[in-house]
Amino acid sequence: MAIGVADKKKVVIIGCGFSGFYASRKLAKLKNKIELTVIDRKDTLDFLPLLPDVIGRGVSPRILTNSIPETAKKLGFNFIKDEVIALKLEKNTVQTSSRIISYDFLIVSSGSETNFYGNDSINKFTYPVNNVRDTERLINSIENREYDRYFISGAGYTGVEIATNLKRYFDKYKINKDITIIEKASDILGPLPKWMKEYTRDNLEKLGIKILLNTSLDKIDGDNVVFSNGQVFNKAFVFWTSGVKTAEFIQNLKIEKNPQGRLKVDPYLRISPNCFVVGDCALIPHKDSFLRMAVQFSIYEAVCAAKNIIKCIQGKKLKIYQPLDLGFIVPMANNRSCGVIMGLNFKGILPTLMHYVMCIYRLNGIKNKLGLLKALVKGGF
Questions:
Q1: Which domains does the chain have, with CATH numbers?
Q2: φ and ψ at 265, to 5 degrees?
Q3: Strands 113-114 and 127-128, bridge-based pairing
Q4: Distance separating alpha carbons of residues 18 and 99, to the nearest angstrom
Q5: What does the buried/exposed string (b/e) look like for 266-280 if buried means 16 or more CB atoms within 10 Å of the residue's CB?
Q6: Could you tell me which residues are beta bridge partners of residue 183?
Q7: pTM for the full model?
Q8: DSSP state of 292
Q9: pLDDT (tens digit, 9 = 90+) per residue, 246-258?
Q10: Rounded CA separation 67/38 (Å)
Q11: What is the gyration radius of the CA atoms in the chain, in angstroms?
Q12: What single string gives the DSSP state of each residue in 110-125?
């Protein structure tokens, strides 16, 4: 017997990044059993791992973005472009800036956003790298060549990748500009292994990229950039990659979370019996610590949460999420990358190739995949 519209379970997904997209793709297959709604404040799904390559390798921003409304039409779910401002877990409702949406099951996959730590001048005058629009703004500013020196605030994955791509861009156009990575900690790359830090530092040094440790950006006053060590620079361009946090509606939840606002979930990825949290906003216990933020985990978590919702509807036992860690790579634009893959250490061009193979695999659409491959070949790889 067919299930009527009134009998369908209402499933809502907040956020359509990697995790939201994969969860929606899985759940959309049950059109006859659920009414699926995806909420996102943007109407595009941007491929974040390749944003630095727009600078260094000339990758077109157009191949890194997909329309969420078109995806919704293709997969058969409802899309609402709106900002979520509150969750009422006890009432099973999501409040956006324009409406209140009820649900039977909820997946929170809103990812993370730039943390400016309440500094208005940094928020206003630095350049984050969060989406395709950010990279287009970056390219326009860099091409104007109005700046004497370039700083990258934050020496994590993204900061290192941006610095090497910027160096590749300057070398291509024979531009002589200072590039400096500033980091408030005593070393680069946070908790990564010592050998990766040493290898990366050596590569950055050979590229002429400076590293300034135990230093942070204090403020931007007019044309002056002021650092915590008292140094002041004029006509300086600043990339901001110094931290992320979860959305305010997550920060406001009275649930255990870490300083970034990531919500601690149970073994089934839940914070309540019918609310699942995945991706960057999920804090998942693993071994003696917690899982790092990574695309691979976001995807696996999303699929697991979607399967568990299906199991809930079918009255079956839920599946415990068990992470599969394939490894991680720090891509550098001169192809001297490094990483740990399946427990083995790799340096040089091989991890670079593996990074792009995975990017081509994960990109949505044949045109986009071919576009990336063409850009890599044209750019001389």
A1: 5-41+82-112+246-325 (3.50.50.60), 114-244+328-378 (3.50.50.100)
A2: -110, 165
A3: unpaired
A4: 25
A5: bebbbbeebbbbbbb
A6: 213
A7: 0.92
A8: P
A9: 999 999 999 999 9
A10: 13
A11: 22
A12: ---EE--TT-HHHHHH
